[in-house]
Amino acid sequence: MKYEIAVTKTQNPKTKPDPATLEFGTVFTDHMFLMDYDKGIGWHDARIVPYGPIALDPAAAVLHYAQEMFEGLKTYKTEDGKIQLFRPDMNAKRTNATNERLCIPLIDEGFYVDAIKSLVAFEKDWVPELDGTSLYIRPFIFGNEPFLGVRPSNQYIFCIILSPVGSYYKGGISPTKIFVEDEYVRSVSGGTGFAKIGGNYANGLASQEKAHKSGFTQVLWLDGKEHKYIEEIGTSNAFFVIGGEVFTAPLDEGTILPGITRDAVIQLLKDWNIPVREERFTIDDVTKAHREGRLDEVFASGTAAVISPVGELRYIDQDMVINHGKIGALSQKLYDTITGIQKGQLPDTYNWIVAL
Ligand SMILES: *Cc1c(COP(=O)(O)O)cnc(C)c1O
Q1: 196 ligand 1 Cβ < 6 A
Q2: Which residue, of 167, 193, 216, is where some domain finishes?
């Protein structure tokens, strides 16, 4: 069967870092997963090999026209030493949705999850144990055919790398300061906003730099057409708790990333009988709610931080302080519940956990 995974072990294992010093995405494990695609053959030669540089022809398609996609998920060690993943089938499904949009050949979703599991199992000694740490998994695919014409590449590389990462919240959860971007846009309906691609991130860097220079953590994106509907916060989904109801942008415009954490948040809120409204709402709705004292909480959701509370929002010349700049009760409960399930401290009643 062409999907067997060949293994080449490194001759030079690295020294593992002190888990207390881990940051995000700076340290990589000893091995990586690779698989090739060639037109006429399909995906082939799945293998685990020593971590290292990938040789690319200077004419490789990805370097010129950005035919590239990526995913991100984490693996956690439970108190009794079990290693588990959070909803990897959703990453597999989203990979194919992205691939379809970028004309990248689809991947068998069952095999995709098996490839992740095989690599993590091979590198299991790299899963850090310290509270708040985890092993971040980065699958990505890019066109590597040497050809300067504009058309889908006939060759691709599918790679998975692993990075032990530190706690997102060293020294406790501190709410972020968010700048509402009223000039640049991230996405338009019919564009690639729903797809997880490097190109969307390159497009967002200038806004992020502008926000950082003014002392903000991230930007809140508004819609690409009228610059008024709320979309996302940086690289995470956005939730607004207004007068006891929770608002978040809908997926059907195709302009926001369908976050797996977003989906978990919505399911939990529904089960807790808290009204969730996945519908379009504007920045004016938010400023009005703030003026009326009904903007209870704002938070972002994503794999990296899970739940990230917003303490302050700036829109043009209005500064809105939310919940006195502190994490709200609902944000805290969502954070505790999702991380509790991920770490095996709470029962997995939704079948979100996949053990190795
Ligand atoms: C990855 C990502 C998210 C969060 O998705 P999760 O599956 O929850 O990690 C949100 N927005 C953007 C733009 C993203 O790239």
Answers
A1: yes
A2: 167
DSSP string, 239-291: EEEETTEEEE--STTS-S---HHHHHHHHHHHHTT--EEES--BHHHHHHHHH
pLDDT, one tens digit per residue, over 139-171 is 999 999 999 999 999 999 999 999 999 987 776
pLDDT digits (tens, 9 = 90+) for 285-304: 999 999 999 999 999 999 99
Question: Is 213 within a domain?
Answer: yes
pLDDT in tens, 309-331: 999 999 999 999 999 999 999 99
Is 235 a pocket residue for ligand 1 (Cβ < 6 Å)? yes
Rounded distance between C-alpha atoms, residue 165 and residue 304, angstroms: 9
- pLDDT reported for residue 306: 94
Q: Which of 24, 73, 181, 237 to mutate to test the pocket of ligand 1 (most atoms within 8 A of CB)?
A: 237
Q: Is the CB of 302 under 6 A from ligand 1?
A: yes
191 within 8 A of 256, measured Cβ to Cβ: no
Structural domain of residue 65, as residue ranges? 6-167
Q: Is 218 touching ligand 1 by the criterion CB < 6 Å? A: no
Closest residue by Cα to atom 5, ligand 1, is: 259
Q: Indicate whether 120 and 51 sit together in one domain.
A: yes
In this prediction, residue 167 carries a pLDDT of 80
Q: Which long-range contacts (CB under 8 A, 24 or more apart) does 316-321 make?
A: 316/180, 316/182, 318/287, 320/286, 320/287, 320/290, 320/295
Does the C-beta of 259 come closer than 6 Å to ligand 1? yes
Residue 349 inside a domain? The answer is no
Atom index in ligand 1 nearest the CA of residue 91 equals 7
Residue 139 Cβ contacting ligand 1 at under 6 Å: no
Picking from 136, 167, 198, the residue at the C-terminal end of a domain is 167
Q: Please tell me the residue having the least CA distance from ligand 1 atom 12.
A: 235
190 and 338 assigned to the same domain = yes
Query: Could you tell me if the CB of 193 is within 6 A of ligand 1?
Result: no
Residues in the chain predicted with pLDDT less than 50, given as ranges, are 1
